[in-house]
Design a protein that fits this description.
This is Cytochrome b6-f complex subunit PetP. The protein is 6% helix and 48% strand. The chain has 63 residues and is mainly beta. The chain has one domain: SH3 type barrels. A 5-stranded antiparallel beta sheet has the order 4-3-2-1-5, with no helix packed on it.
Amino acid sequence: MQVGQKVRVRGFKDGSGKAIASKVGEIGVIKEEKIMDGSKWGYIVKFSDSSKSWFFADELESA
């Protein structure tokens, strides 16, 4: 996964709430990558409604 890549949200691990649950299946663009939980890569994804959230790589797929 790279910054600028379009991705689809496959699912998410933690109970982030309804706002994130509504993003499952949506397509967004990776805006930033960072280390999450001390060792795993995470990605900040921006959606067409201008909202942003972070996801682990295994929660995303290429769109």
